[in-house]
Design brief:
With 210 residues, this protein is α/β, with parallel strands linked by helices. It has two domains: 1-139, Rossmann fold; 142-210, no CATH class. It is 38% helix and 27% strand. It is built from eight helices and ten strands. It is globular and about 40 Å long. The termini are far apart.
């Protein structure tokens, strides 16, 4: 059965593009590719995607500029995973504030990529049917931080995500699906989120307003 899921990869590096394609081919997804910012904007204006993997640095428009234009033009933003180096934490945080759901740090492992994709696709508002190989990976899976972030952003919700670890509780605050603050043990922004992602979670709770 052909997958109902459609993914847009926005990446100008051929090696990274091939990594994404090779990894995602295991999930039988429909994959489109844009190799610069202009092409990415054209595609999201004319097609509906369940998920977009967005590199931060691109010809003709950066990842931040793409998200700003999508917001300005009131285009429905697919669940978006930003792809960047951790050294660009300020830019990654800006993307999360513009409505991106999560991020991947270069270089990304195939396992982390597959986990992030499956978590985000579980929250797709366009979900009609899930291929068996994706369904199996989602069955009985507890709420993860990535999935919680996708849930809040895709629903354009206001509230907070509480992440309990053995080392304390982290808080991510959202307004209308956009991250406004992240805190954990004196850390803030992407550094707080990255610290939370590396620790085992006792629980992840979404608390919404209204």
């Amino acid at each position: 059965m052909e997958s109902e899921f459609r993914i847009l990869i926005v990446e100008d590096n051929p090696a990274d593009e091939q990594l994404f394609k090779a990894t995602l081919s295991q999930l039988s997804l429909s994959i489109d590719v844009a190799r610069d910012g202009k092409e990415a904007l054209q595609k999201v204006r004319t097609a509906v995607y369940d998920l977009m993997i967005l590199d931060m640095i691109l010809p003709n428009a950066s990842g931040i500029e793409i998200l700003k234009k999508i917001n300005r033009e009131k285009i429905t933003l697919p669940i978006t995973i930003v792809y960047s180096a951790l050294s660009a934490e300020n830019q990654v945080m800006e993307c999360l504030k513009l409505g991106a759901s999560s991020y991947l740090i270069k270089p990304v492992s195939p396992l982390n990529l597959l986990n992030s994709i499956s978590d985000c696709l579980a929250l797709s508002t366009r979900r009609k049917s899930i291929p068996e190989n994706i369904s199996l990976s989602l069955s009985n899976k507890p709420l993860t931080l990535t999935k919680a972030m996708a849930e809040v952003t895709s629903g354009r919700r206001t509230g907070q995500i509480l992440v309990e670890t053995h080392d304390g509780i982290g808080v991510l605050e959202y307004t209308s699906g956009k991250l406004t603050a992240a805190r954990f043990k004196g850390l803030s922004g992407v550094f707080a989120i990255e610290a939370l992602r590396t620790l085992p979670h006792r629980s992840v709770t979404v608390q919404l307003v209204g």
